[in-house]
Amino acid sequence: MTETVGTGNPATARTSGKKKQAGGLTVRRVFTTEGVHPYDQVTWESRDVVMTNWRDGTVNFEQRGVEFPDFWSVNATNIVTSKYFRGAVGSSQREQSLKQLIDRVVRSYAGAGREHGYFASPADAEVFEHELTWMLLHQVFSFNSPVWFNVGTTSKQQVSACFILAVDDTMESILNWYREEGLIFKGGSGAGLNLSRIRSSRELLSSGGTASGPVSFMRGADASAGTIKSGGATRRAAKMVVLDVDHPDVEEFVQTKAREEEKIKVLRDAGFDMDLSGSDITSVQYQNANNSVRVSDEFMQAVETQGDFGLRARMTGEVIDRVDAKKLFRTIAQAAWECADPGLQYDGTINDWHTCPESGRITASNPCSEYMHLDNSSCNLASLNLLKFATADGGFDAPKFAKAVELVITAMDISICFADFPTEAIGDTTRKFRQLGIGYANLGALLMALGHAYDSDGGRALAAAITSLMTGVSYRRSAELAAVVGPYEGYARNAEAHQRVMRKHAAANELVRTYHANDAAVRALATQEWKRGIELGEASGWRNAQASVLAPTGTIGFMMDCDTTGIEPDFSLVKFKKLVGGGSMQIVNQTVPRALTALGYQAEQVEAIVEYIAEHGHVVDAPGLRPEHYEVFDCAVGERSIAPMGHVRMMAAVQPFLSGAISKTVNMPESATVEEVEEIYFQGWKYGLKALAIYRDNCKVGQPLSTGKKDKAEPEAEKVVEYRPVRKRLPKKRPSQTVSFTVGGAEGYLHAGSYPDDGLGEIFVKLGKQGSTLSGVMDAFSMSISVGLQHGIPLEFYVSKFSNLRFEPAGMTDDPDIRIATSVMDYLFRRLALDYLPYEKRAQLGIFTADERSAQVEATYGTAPAAEPENVDIDALRSTVDSSAADPTKRVAHSTAELVELNLGTASDAPLCMTCGTKMRPAGSCYACEGCGATSGCS
């Protein structure tokens, strides 16, 4: 715990914005013991980190003999060693212990705190150093990645992960935009900006010609980002491009990526490689940025009343065109439905919660949409692991959480004292306003562990109370820091607005409706913190213009061994885990038995339910589990996935308690309609969100599927080049089989003829009465497929295209290998795959016989021994899959995302990691790799 020593003249601090006052912080021990160093309280062990690319077996990183605590997972060890240890690999200067990494960072923070007068005495600085060390060592929180990359090294001390740039309507400014973005991308970070100052293509230049418009300049910036990515970066350049809804070129902007998606489809069908990392994808434009439209309250009200809306010239502000607001909103939703862009940013809400409006409006965000503040500014992030504050009796330790927030926010503010920045303008703004972004991870795991459904009133109440407490403590500590080292320089000009926003946060806290003892206790403490913080701030000002955001927590989430990232729910109930020695396992999340115990189930019941989950991947019909408890175990994907509005409601619950916004993409099923996208975007405005983006499953063409290891190279043989497909006809007499089937009550027959020694060659499908339209369509379809097979189109191509199609009739079948089909086509091609494709190819498509699935479950999970009532033995329910000795006939998962694919029998839209080839999983509005910690833009 920390407290302020010394007073000073509050009036002087409030007006000058710069003056330091006497005294410093007294820091009391919370986690540590006096006389005992945190490192001496844990058991250390030596480990070897060897990371391979599973696609070709090559080693992409190796460092042996690294030192970590015994309770750190192998995955966290691998990611921290490969990503954050500094020094050339193999050299004596290379860091080889977690102690060195933590000391490098923490000592830099403590030293800067001493230098800049943050502490009342050297003893307080030492306690601060020990407390910070303990929390990092025990994975209670983590700074964002740039801190681990740069602090304490010979590199520039860049601590920020989030950047906002600015561009004006001059060629010099536009070219400078390209340059500044390039510098930020080169350093592995991302940036966002608003292009609305650039005049539209309907306006004239001073020379008399017509302006190019912002969309044309986006092409150059996109090409620059793509070039820097292809120049050696391990992730794509992360960028956000925003355009105001009243810009005359807004419709062109909205449709840019949707039009390019059509181009991708045409090129793909012509045989070009259009996967995300494909050789031909670079010919497509606008793929390196997230696009968002900045919508005003005026526009949204016009949508609601179905009125018209004016588009304004950039130079004069006059209305040069009027459009149907509802029609434009539908165009936005249609584009998002087609390609997931653009998202929306709600300008009215964003600027209503702006602490510094006298210094400029908020016009843009960082690439992941959580940081929103002044142009040419930055934000450094840190996230707390919420599950660390769950108590054994099913509670949440709010007082200890508040003390942890105090320490973390203090460290974050100290970092600005010594930080370097990519541009002079960004450095100047950040030092004047000192924007911070404290947040959290593992919310989904915490709610489940405490017995709350993610999409429930109780779950939202606890999330809101925790977020309110976090931000309330942060601003209270910020006011205390202002009394010690002075408020931020821009405070004096914005004092009235800043105080107004603090009162808005406090008022929102009073509106949180509590349902259980946990959320009531947390909210009560938050109420005290807001009251105390406002009183201190009105006297001394605040040290920081911004305090909190909810970031994706990609790589640092893995560093903290979090089950869930940011505000996200659990991804799936069964996860993928690496083992010491190089193997891997599939394990039911440790949160599940904890949740079952919290819900009142006995040890024997918990064991049976966990065993069922291990086998089926979901809780539906689990033995002894009451149906009213199913919702507690709902996840992002799977049998019981959380509805899109469930995600929106959770965002709405916590948004009033965040200085910034939330990095999150609302996933929607492939069957979602444009009208449903409209409703999500409209409700986001109604609920008071600051930003919202959606992703409809399978809406993008350029999504890669995981593939197994390539076969060893065979001796080269002379190739015969065919310049056209050659039809290979079936012999007069050929083997065939007929299968009768029933799908959703519809009966039919599948006749399949094959070559004597070379696979399937023809199919005929009988469905519907002879002479009916349906019968004729099926005959034509059968002939088309048969001719394609005889011209060399692989069966697996047809299976990948036609399986999982959804239309009636659909439902239960009479086939023991395929119990449920989403359509007749889905059934037919799954049956053909089972009958004619080898196991390896079927495994890649997620198609197995009933016997194969049973064998997998038996080989994977076995039989679990009895467990003690207070400690369910989850280890008994998992199975090691040694990649070096794996059965080559089996498809092995290499991440939780791939494990979910195996369980569901479908391929997800997440990209493959560019570093290690592992299927990534969602992390906020980005993706993160469990294999090596790489991210698609977030830190």
TrEMBL record:
Organism: Amycolatopsis umgeniensis
Every Ribonucleotide reductase large subunit C-terminal domain range: 160-695
Location of the TSCPD domain: 731-835
MF-aspect GO terms: cobalamin binding; cobalt ion binding; nucleotide binding; ribonucleoside-diphosphate reductase activity, thioredoxin disulfide as acceptor
Region annotated Disordered, chain positions: 1-24
Bias kind Polar residues: ranges: 1-15
Lineage, uppermost ranks: Bacteria, Bacillati, Actinomycetota, Actinomycetes, Pseudonocardiales
Protein name (database record): Vitamin B12-dependent ribonucleotide reductase
Listed GO biological process terms: DNA biosynthetic process
Catalytic reaction annotation: a 2'-deoxyribonucleoside 5'-diphosphate + [thioredoxin]-disulfide + H2O = a ribonucleoside 5'-diphosphate + [thioredoxin]-dithiol
